[in-house]
Amino acid sequence: MSIFVGNLPFRAEQEDIIELFASFGEVANCSLPLERDTGRKRGFAFVEMADEATEERAIEGLQGTELMGRPLRINKAEPRGSRGGGGGGGYGGGGGGRG
């Protein structure tokens, strides 16, 4: 399981996030995705702890914690594609044919 860390300041580094989570146990992995085009950080990260119990404690303990003046949003990361498609779909209203 991974932990999603949102609302990160763009100047936050991997070391800052690891330091934050390390107080709850061993951090197995931490990644900060970058924009494909610009190479800039996207404002969120994924963290993996050594075990699930440690991840649960970190999620509960760090919820709303501020990093560099920004309150973090911390949740279990959802596997890609399982976010449930949202609205949109359907067919647009038809244009009445002139008849």
Commentary on this structure:
The mean pLDDT is 87. This protein has one domain: 2-Layer Sandwich (Alpha-Beta Plaits), CATH 3.30.70. The protein is built from 2 helices and 6 strands; from the N terminus they run βαββαβββ. The longest helix is centred in the middle third of the chain and has 11 residues, at 52-62. With 99 residues, it is of the alpha+beta class. Strands 2-3-1-6 form a 4-stranded antiparallel β-sheet, covered by helices on one side. Strands 4-5 form a two-stranded antiparallel sheet.
Can I get a quick summary?
This protein is an alpha+beta fold.
Our count of domains comes out at 1
> From the helix content, strand content and strand pairing, which structural class follows?
alpha+beta
| Overall pLDDT | 87
Stretches with pLDDT under 50, minimum 5 residues:
none
Architecture (CATH level 2) name: 2-Layer Sandwich
Biggest sheet character: 4 strands, antiparallel
CATH class type? Alpha Beta
What radius of gyration results from the CA coordinates?
19 Å
| Shape designation | globular
CATH superfamily: RRM (RNA recognition motif) domain
For the biggest β-sheet, the strand order reads: 2-3-1-6
Note the gap between the termini: 59 Å
Order of helices and strands: EHEEHEEE
CATH topology: Alpha-Beta Plaits
Topology:
Blueprint: E1 3-6, H1 14-22, E2 27-31, E3 44-49, H2 52-62, E4 66-67, E5 70-71, E6 73-76
Antiparallel strand pairs: 1-3, 1-6, 2-3, 4-5
Defining key terms:
2 helices; two-stranded antiparallel ribbon; 99 residues; four-stranded antiparallel sheet; Alpha-Beta Plaits; alpha+beta
